[in-house]
Design goal:
4 strands; disordered C terminus; 7 helices; globular; Lysozyme-like; 214 residues; single chain
Amino acid sequence: MLHYTAMESCEAARDRLCDPVAEVSAHYLIGRGGAVLALVDEARRAWHAGAGEWGGCRDINSASIGIELDNDGRSPFAEPQMAALEGLLPGIMARWDIPPEGVIGHSDMAYARKSDPGPLFDWARLARAGLSVWPESGVAPGGPADYATPETIGAFAAALRRFGYAAPDPAPPLLLHAFRMRFRPDGGAFDARDLALAEDLARRFPVDPGLAET
């Protein structure tokens, strides 16, 4: 799971993540210059996710590796930092048998309260490297002004549930916001492209609820 630190420096983030009083931790912290700090052994539970759900699993802290990226949440992610992340992820994914669709953001599993790693994070770059996923669709952007009907919103929520989101029906606006931040950070009202992208992800990367621990 990927996060941004939203702190003034990597050192400040490290100090907080190592402070028992803060009750927050992560397995790795990557600085803007590309330095990778290992803070918690991968086999141990880190406190980075909090309340939320992904793929039917609600105890995300016990089922994930947390990676914090030194970023204020308003700036592009530095090239050395992205390169370091691309160097770190393959080993983690191999050791724990994590498929590309298992690399998610904090906002994916806690979209009602979290926004990291945010709309400036380059998910498409990770997908090109086989380290995450990206939707494919031939549907043109946009749609009629009244595209958001109960049927289309319901289909959108159903597709996102198959992909992994905890998506109630009807889908709340915050769910669309989280989906857009990751896969289509261009704003605007719900339209046909949102549904097509969600259905493509659900078709190619479905979650098997029978394998998810609750």
